[in-house]
Design goal:
single chain, six-stranded mixed sheet, 30% helix, C-N_Hydrolase_sf, hydrolase, Nit1/2_C-N_Hydrolase, CN hydrolase domain-containing protein
Amino acid sequence: MAVNSVRIAAAQMTSINDLATNYATCSRLVKEAALAGAKLVCFPENFSFVGAKDGESLKIAEPLDGPIMKGYCDLARESNMWLSLGGFQERGSDDAHLCNAHVLIDDAGNIRSTYRKMHMFDVDVPGGAVFKESRKEIVATDSPFGRLGLTVCYDLRFPELYQQLRFHHGAEVLLVPAAFTKVTGEAHWEVLLRARAIETQCYVIAAAQAGKHSEKRESFGETLIIDPWGTVIGRLPDRVSTGIAVADIDFSLIKSVRTKMPISQHRKPVEFWKQASV
């Protein structure tokens, strides 16, 4: 590890509709990450629960101060590890609503930041399941791993959010926990992630759900860690296996890439495009 760097891990798993089983998997992966020298573990979307039937996620949804999230706060504190947990089924305003929340917990077990998914996936996938998942708050937070920009899964298709995180909120590392479908993952997952890294000159940590969760649901997998030049620096050997990818966040590389290609100075402000389209 370079002097001006810190090690992180991105976890891949196949969550099911059993809270205890998923917690045990997360706990095991945190231990693996600690042995590898990581200080942050990023988990995929729906890390704690993936429903097998309609309505199951609503039934188990809890507020952030409920026992499910408390268990993960305890895990962070006991392992002395930061955890990126996205997205968590957070209970909404009533029993019929929930938020897809990306929760960042520090190594003392405290919730540092919470981002509620901004772009909701509402698409009928041919031959697949129907997904019906908004909040308007962009979330970036300082950490020992640089300034982190929090997003979730389908956000990846909307570059404006990532541009905002980099150029208006100072992000250096973009977190993209996801559960891409097999069809969309094969077509778009890696190319979109690398594009977000290149156009923002940020590290991208993309923890993914992988494999068959139930008879009706399957995720693409392919957990990736990408550097600010767009190079994949962390990847599991098996696209659908359970495990961790480990890499170092090198702050000197972020500075170097941004200095040699100063796109922050060259990009046009919103006002320019409004005038140019008149």
